[in-house]
Amino acid sequence: MLSNIGNTLLFLNLLLGVSIIYFAFQNLKTNEITVSKKIYHICLFQSTFIIICFITLVTAFVVSDFSIINVYQNSHSLKPFFYKVSGTWGNHEGSLLLWVIILTIFSFLFLLYNKHHPKNYRIYSLIIQNILILGFLFFLLFNSNPFSKILPIPKEGLGLNPILQDPALAIHPPLLYIGFVGSSIYFSAAISSLLTNYSGKLFAQSIKNWVLISWSFQTLGILAGSIWAYYELGWGGFWFWDPVENASLLPWFAMSALLHSLIVLEKRNLLYFWVIVLCLLTFILSVTGTFLVRSGILNSVHTFANDPSRGLYILIFLSLMIFASVLLLFNKFKNTSYNLNSNSKETFILVNNWFMIFYLITVLLGTVYPIFTEVLTDNKVSVGPPFYNTVIIPIVILFLLFMSVGPQAQWIKNKFYNLNLLLKILIGSILINFSIIYLFKEYSLLSNFIVISAVFLVISSLIDLYKSFKKLKKDSPRILSHLSFGFLILFIGLNYNFSLEKDFNLKLGEKKNFENYSIEFTDIKLQDFKNYKAVIGEFKINNSKENFNQSLYPEIRIYDNPSTITYEASIRSGILKDYYITMSNIDRSDYYNIKFQKKPFMMWIWVSVIFISLGGFLRLYQNAKKNY
Amino acid sequence: MRLKTIIFFIILNLNIASAENFTLDLNKVLKNLRCLVCQGQSVADSNSEFAQTIKLVVKDQIKEGKSEKEIYNFLVEKYGEWIVYKPPLNKVNFVLWLFPYLVFVIGGVVIFLLLKKRNNH
């Protein structure tokens, strides 16, 4: 029943997409200056139908309708309600439906909120966006249909992969998709802008809020993925430069570059073609990311999400997109004059773009390089954290310095205020770095520079914040994001240098001592839960210096459907540091392998990222207030 | 004067940094090795039998006084380049290591040229 409703709605959407394109072309031929009411209505229907379609799938998951393959494969009647719902997008087909929903809704909203822009520009954006919608709808219907039926109807589902049963992961795909797929709208707008020669400031204004929305959500989406990895994967880290993590970071770099250069286009009417390139690049990278993840071409932690046959379709679609974009760009490219002063704000924004492109190329190259070496030389290489850390971190130092100095520059003018002040801040940062080392612990030369440059950015942003409170500067969203980025790098640096990691084997009743810590294995018990059994250990942690006493309870979980063993970390989060314990059994032995970690400032890493994206939301709010 | 103060502090920092002791960190080595039987996990982060074996091997080699590089070479010879997360700089991988910097330099030159063009006008 639900399967039929879903399929019918998908077909209807296909027809609506085609009719929108048809009526849009009709509308272009007329002399009317406004977009016809008919198109609005069809778009409204299109959005409504796709939302109902999604609700249908959610319902199928909630009532455990196992006549649908997708539900059968990814759900189980005993699963908690929350994970039944989140299971809807915790699989390939469902998440692809989410992808189409965002494409559709953004298409409608973009049409609705740009009424003061020319008709042709809006209509072409709509047409391009609907071509994208149709492309993904075809893929959804004929390759990855979430409503496919199964006969005979199974009595029980196979269950959702236990490591996906986590609150952070439940919100991770929707957040990330608003970022990923949200970038489609400025892809369409950019092409439309090239086709209709609608360039310059007005074009920048029409897309800037959409860039902000996608950037802010993308930031949060990456964060949710990171938090999930920290809590769920049991290794105590939050970023592994895994190909799939990289796939979410690549569009983020492009978006961040776009976010900045768009300001130049809006204020100074410069860099139009560069902005277009970034618009196109962002969505192309989003689809590339999806291709890399879904095709299973890369070895990664996301192996629960791949299937080679899907890869081909996305690859063809991707190639067409890139081909069309490049062709159009070459056709329309005009050499424009640049009017830049070396110390002006425009220059510093270009510097931001310079670094962003460097990060982007490095991460992209590192991610796809193993594929090339394997094909060309039959040599499998791994490109992992040490590569990225070696190449990127030294450059980040320079980047942070530019990031502190840049915002002090003025538009157009070739002049700097506050050179004195900057020097004082630099000395202050060096002093702070020195005192951290003096009070706590020494660290490598590279870490020294990271801490100094991060503190430099933090202090100069704080001074800006002070000025903005005194109404000397009205740039609080920028300051908030920059400040939080400084804190982020600072906390990551401190976290890296002050982490403590111990790996040892213990038997029940034994105790392990190191530094100021003692860890005692006091208890172990077996417990039954609704959808799994768990072996729960109790460990007493004692820090003699800080008079700290705490018990932690890591688990080994045995899930029945699907039958899997997971190692559940026990984490005690604190304001200054987290304690993190995982345990795993050793075959044919009474001993358990224990991994104990002290992770300083974890919470502040999360908080920093939240505030980075809050900066984006704050700017959106300001823009909205200005317009109404 | 101010410049001197800065230089003073930088040197101070350098001294402290170089005072670090250089004993080979087992965990650091293990983090740079891929657990071949796992999905996207390092040897340090895994408890598979494979990881346990490699941990013992590395521990022994450190005890024997081998350098980080010697340990990696030993493992690469045995398991192939797939096992190290930091690809060695060689004929095959030089594009990987050099291209990013090339992009960085080109980017810098482009911005420099844009500014210079303006100054000539």
Quaternary organization = heterodimer
List the helices and strands of chain A in order: HHHHHHHHHHHHHHHHEEEEEEEEEEH
In CATH, what is the homologous superfamily of the largest domain in chain B? Cytochrome C biogenesis protein
Largest sheet of chain B: none
Question: If you had to describe this structure to a student in words, what would you say it looks like?
Answer:
- The complex is a heterodimer of chains A (628) and B (121).
- Chain A has helices at residues 2-29, 37-62, 69-74, 81-86, 92-113, 119-142, 167-196, 201-232, 243-268, 272-295, 308-332, 345-377, 385-405, 419-439, 445-469, 476-498, 602-627, and strands spanning 500-506, 511-514, 517-528, 532-543, 548-552, 555-559, 564-568, 570-573, 577-585, 592-600.
- With 628 residues, chain A is α+β, with helices and mostly antiparallel strands.
- Among the domains of chain A are: 1-160, no CATH class; 500-603.
- In chain A, the strands form 2 sheets. In chain A, strands 2, 3, 4, 5, 6 and 7 form a 6-stranded antiparallel sheet that branches.
- In chain A, helix 7 packs antiparallel against helix 8 (201-232).
- Chain B is an all-alpha fold and 121 residues long.
- Chain B has 2 domains: 23-88, Cytochrome C biogenesis protein (Helicase, Ruva Protein, domain 3), CATH 1.10.8; 90-121.
- Chain B has helices at residues 2-18, 26-31, 49-63, 68-79, 94-120.
- The model of chain B is unreliable at 16-22 (pLDDT under 50).
Q: What does this entry show, briefly?
A:
The complex is a heterodimer of chains A (628) and B (121). Chain A has 628 residues and is α+β, with helices and mostly antiparallel strands.
